[in-house]
Amino acid sequence: MHHRYVLSALLGLSLGPAFAADAPGGAIADQSEPHKRVAPATERFEPPAEASISKDAFGQMVERGRQLFVNTQSLRGQYVGNGLNCANCHLDQGRQPHSAPLWGAWTAYPAFRKKTGEVSTFIERIQGCFMYSMNGKAPAADSEELKALSTYAYWLAKGAPTGIDLPGRLYPALPKPKGGFDIARGKAVYAEHCAVCHGASGEGQKQGEHYAFPPLWGRDSYNWGAGMHRVNTAAGFIQANMPLGQGGTLSEQQAWDVAAFVNSHERPQDPRFTVDIETTRQKFHANDGVNFYGQTLDGVLIGQGID
Amino acid sequence: MNRLVLIAFAAIAGPLAHAGEDPGKQLVQQGNAQGALACATCHGVDGAGNAAAGFPRLAGLDAGYIARQLQDFHAGTRVQPVMAPIAKALNPDEIQAVAAYYAAQPLAPAPALDRSSPLPQDPGAQLALRGDWSKGVPECTRCHGAGGAGVGSQFPRLAGQHASYIATQLKSWRDGSRHNDPGKLMETVAKNLDDAQIDAVSHYFAGLGQP
Questions:
Q1: How far is residue A303's CA from residue B102's CA, in Å, rounded to a whole number?
Q2: Per-domain residue ranges for chain A?
Q3: Do B151 and A244 make contact, defined as CB atoms within 8 angstroms?
């Protein structure tokens, strides 16, 4: 079957680099962070087709997880505090490579995470996305919601080898451009390539009460603790996936510039906020990639949050 | 064809507009002295269009979208031998008036169908609600809204549009003859569709949002 062919291609190509990354000096890297691409994108893992979800109790749980993933707004007010859905950042229902696909995630946990300073399980990883990306409250580990979401991820990863980085996992790691990046240039990229959907002020566009195009900053967006608030992380996502339907068309420079522009705007406060912005910055943002939290841009202190 | 159009014109535009009426409606029923034919001839007073002739339904389209298409025909960035000369005969005020008139014509709401709906069997519905990501095509409803209801003035309503017109437009983008979309968003999608997909998805949207 097709699966088997893809699998052997994966094993052949990715074992080397994936192991090499862990080896030197016994230093424990953050195993949940983006790695270099491990194989050409053509050697992609194929998750099972949606049509093959069974009608039995297991299949119903898979479908419930799929529903929650694409329509997380059904949990608004309960576990979700902004206007987003999981699938806004994990495209094609969590299937799309280089968009942190669920099949790539399922086989990568438990893993040590710098963010939590400990080994996180898959469930704990999803709880993180609820707290930060969804600016909400994490459902309990044994809740029906997390059972459904993890069943969906497990099903998508059918046939995937465990414990190695599958090609297409996470967002691509885009190296910072040699000449740095520029918010003003990013503003121009935004006006030309993004505003038609995400709105002139990053506010998104609604159809009825739900967002057809998600907001990129402001009250209804991801908060200051979310992975997407890192310029490097957002740049990788944007270069691979945006403008929608035209992934890979922006240059790496444009992606960094526009990611910096997007992430220089206010959004809900980091839920880990302690004492003041500076203390919070030192504790949680000083060593978290490239980000503007607690910095002053054009005379304005960034990271004040929005209620 | 010409004769058919004329008869339709006579039938639809028979009761001529009275003075003082909405200028948009007057234009729709009578055209103008600069040579714009009465829109109703082809699009109907109610904006229903004509499936067999490929005249698009205008009822319920966003006013901003209608106005921009007329401006594009006027400026020559959208080209079509029948419609372009008519739009060129409209002035900016007339464009706004007629856009407001057609946008206000009632239309059944589009059903709330999107990727949270169960997976449909029909390939047209699958493309509309799930996309074809193997070719990088997002689901049509991601940009055109749930049920193809349209989003704002940049993403037009597709629900209830005639299949013949939808298919013509998709093919025009594919062959490059329509290219007035912002950021080549629609062109990129259309270039990745084959004939069977165009046929299926056109019929799917045509069947949505009918009274």
A1: 47
A2: 54-170, 183-301
A3: no
User: Is the minimum CB–CB distance between B33 and chain A shorter than 8 Å?
Assistant: no
Contact of A281 with chain B, judged by CB distance below 8 Å, is answered with: no
Tell me the C-alpha to C-alpha distance, in Å, between residue B14 and each of B8, B11, B40. 10, 6, 11
Q: What's the burial of A173, exposed, middle or buried (CB within 10 Å: 0-12/13-18/19+)?
A: middle
Q: Could you say which architecture CATH assigns to the domain A183-301?
A: Orthogonal Bundle (1.10)
ipTM summary value: 0.90
Q: Who contacts A302 (Cβ-Cβ below 8 Å, separation ≥6)? A: A264, A266, A292, A293, A294, A295, A296
**pLDDT value at residue B210:** 80
Please report which confidence band the pLDDT of residue A63 belongs to, taking 50, 70 and 90 as the band edges: very high
Domain A54-170's class? mainly alpha
| B140 annotated ligand-binding residue | yes
| Rounded Cα distance, B180 and B87, in Å | 15
Residue A29, pLDDT score = 56
Nearest CA among A86, A92, A94, A98 for reference residue B138: A92
Contacts of B119 in chain A (CB under 8 A): 50-51, 53
Question: In whole angstroms, what is the distance from residue A61 CA to residue A152 CA?
Answer: 7
Question: CA–CA distance from B196 to each of B78, B120, B168, B171, B200 (Å)?
Answer: 25, 17, 13, 12, 6
Least Cα separation, residue B189 to chain A (angstroms): 7
Does any CB of chain B come closer than 8 Å to the CB of residue A245?
Answer: yes
| A54-170 and A183-301: identical CATH topology | yes
- Token digits of residue A78: 């309960």
The answer, yes or no, to whether residue A19 has pLDDT greater than 70, is no
Do the annotations mark residue B83 as ligand-binding? Answer: yes
Domains of chain B as residue ranges with CATH? 2-103 (1.10.760.10), 123-206 (1.10.760.10)
Interchain pair A70, B184: CB under 8 A:
no
Report yes or no: A67 at the B interface, CB cutoff 8 Å: yes
Q: Which residues of B147-173 are buried (b: 16+ CB within 10 A; e: fewer)?
A: bbbbbbbbbbbbbbbbbbbbbbbbbbb
Task: Return the amino acid letter for A128.
Answer: G
Q: What is the pLDDT of residues A214-264, one digit of tens each?
A: 999 999 999 999 999 999 999 999 999 999 999 999 999 999 999 999 999
CA distance A147 to A141: 8
Q: Taking CB atoms and an 8 Å limit, are A246 and B115 in contact across chains?
A: no
Contact of A212 with chain B, judged by CB distance below 8 Å, is answered with yes
- What is the distance between the alpha carbons of residues A263 and A216, in angstroms, rounded to a whole number? 8
